[in-house]
Amino acid sequence: MLYIAPSLLAADFSDLKGEIARMEDAGANYLHLDVMDGHFVPNISFGSCVISSIRRCTNLIFDVHLMISEPLRYVDSFIKAGADIVNFHYESVNNPLAVFKAIKEREIPCGIAVSPKTSVEAVLPFVGLADQIVIMMVEPGYGGQSFMPECLDKVRALRRHAIKMGLDLNIEVDGGVTAENAAYCTEAGANVLVAGTALFKTKRPRSVMAAMREAGKEHPFIG
Ligand code: DX5
Ligand code: ZN
Q1: From the CA of 138, which ligand is nearest?
Q2: Cβ neighbours for 64, distance < 8 A, ≥ 6 positions apart
């Protein structure tokens, strides 16, 4: 199935409750939560306090994207705050397996994210262990950047690899995703679309989501 994950980073922060309800009404599957620490990435966004507060506003699946150094130190606090899926960056750790282990021990689905400069080979060993692999279509750190189509080759390689292994892997694309480029993403093999600007900065998120779902319909890997 195609999952649509609005990224809260593009919301009006003075009305998080209203913004989340707007996405839920429009048919979102996940709420993508970008956590930035000003160290792993240059920008600072929000942390577990905000996540635990908004947890009370919605039943959407919280897809937490940790763009932080030392994610292992914070895994527990994000799970306690209400994360349903925890994604950490391959580039942020020396030992990804230790982070997988910590998250899986808490029986929470775990994803690994790769920045544009990292090759897909880096994460191939985690297919089978990861519940989700996040392919960044922009440099992590800011919303509203332009989609880098060259990163789609990684999605293709990853989907091919997962099929070869007989695995139903979730492949998430994150950054610059719009109704216009959604079909490129799903054709390449993505089945989770993160979109911040395209969904929050429109008055008609329902039609943008409908266009995204249309793009995903012909996709051979999506039910
Ligand atoms: C970038 C974040 C993305 C971003 C998506 O560092 O991980 O989730 O906020 O927002 P748009 O769709 O505006 O690129
Ligand atoms: Zn993100």
Answers
A1: 1
A2: 33, 35, 51, 78, 83, 84, 85, 86, 87
